[in-house]
Sequence to fold (293 residues):
Amino acid sequence: MDPSPFHSGELTLQQRAGVSALAQRVGRGIRPALSQHLGDFLAEQPFVLLAYLDAEERPRLRLVDSGAPERPVLEPLDAEHVQLLADVGALGLRPGDPFGLLAIELATRSRVRLNGTFEASGEGGARLRLEQVYGNCPKYIQARGLVHVGAEPGALAPLAERIAQADTFFIATGSRALGLDASHRGGRPGFIHQPAPGQLLVPDYKGNAMFNSLGNVELSPQAALLLVDFARGSATELLGRGQVLWDDPRQAEFPGAERLLRFDIESVEERPRETALRWRFESYSPFDPPPHA
Fold:
């Protein structure tokens, strides 16, 4: 029998949620190599979300793009390697460092997750060795179409206002020992609740039963959340610690929530020029529950 693709944190949460059998079935879709279909998808994407470790071994998250909607940011090299066609030298990546990568096409609500290690980097970008490759369902992805390469972004609204208006965020979790994961979370504006200064509460809706992100948080609470202003190309990275809350009475305030993620913000990094790309909002996901009551 093939070994489980899940670590102890993921298995613990799967068991507590009563979805262990489902997770094992879904987990059979996690492969150590690219299929032709997924390789073709990756070769069309102009941006990805990259999870990596900084000098303090904290998970970090960046939107990395090719600079133009028609130019891909990834080049499949073979079934076990892809080239990230962007200069990521400033991130301090070293051979053997883990990465998590999310390729997401917002217009079609399609996404693929890649986990593995960096092999080399240079002027041509970074060579990535794949260890886990799998697609995810379209749930909770708000449809957005790429429209153009934008000019200088405008002034940022206050952070609390941007959090309250957000319908999407990305999250980096894991550690050197666990590996890294880059993932997507979505909901109607207001789904990220701010119960106190420096603290967020986020509903965890019904998903793929694998608990990749929350399983990482269970064993290694350090995480990074990335809010992207798709119209302006700016991003805000929130660094802090996560905690999975089960049976918290506040869960009743979040329609559709099966549990909550508490996130305590330790630092904030504003990046007004995260990406040259711009997106136009098209529609909310039909799976989105109502926001926080």
Helices lie at 8-17, 20-27, 36-42, 159-165, 212-219. The domain at 8-282 is CATH 2.30.110.10 (Pnp Oxidase; Chain A). The radius of gyration is 18 Å. The mean pLDDT is 95.
